[in-house]
């Protein structure tokens, strides 16, 4: 009975962690999309920022969002 509870607990933790990683990946990748396409989306608050900093931040978001997506798909917790 103890093993069954531990297995259930581990499956629940894995599912929660996977869901969290995938949700965060989509939010971070969405932020990168907004940073890269702010002119086309006509978001004035973001287009006023320095282009170099905006693209640098967007690139970091792509890298970290890709890592979170990979970790969520891999499910190795």
Features:
77 residues; mainly alpha; 0% strand
Describe this structure in words.
The chain is mainly alpha-helical and 77 residues long. The protein has one domain. Helices cover 87% and strands 0% of the residues. The protein is built from 4 helices and no strands. The chain has helices at 2-36, 38-41, 44-47, 51-74. α1 runs antiparallel to α4. The chain is rod-shaped.
Give the assembly state of these chains.
single chain
Cα separation of the termini: 23 Å
Number of strands: 0
| Cα-atom radius of gyration | 18 Å
Structure summarized in a few sentences:
With 77 residues, the protein is an all-alpha fold. The protein is built from four helices and no strands. It has one domain.
Element layout with pairings:
Layout: H1 2-36, H2 38-41, H3 44-47, H4 51-74
Helix pairs in contact: 1-4
């Amino acid at each position: 009975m103890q093993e069954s509870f531990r297995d259930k607990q581990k499956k629940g933790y894995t599912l929660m962690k996977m869901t969290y990683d995938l949700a965060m990946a989509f939010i971070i990748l969405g932020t990168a999309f907004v940073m890269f396409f702010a002119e086309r989306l006509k978001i004035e608050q973001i287009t006023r920022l320095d282009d170099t900093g905006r693209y640098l931040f967007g690139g970091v978001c792509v890298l970290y969002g890709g890592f979170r997506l990979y970790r969520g798909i891999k499910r190795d917790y």
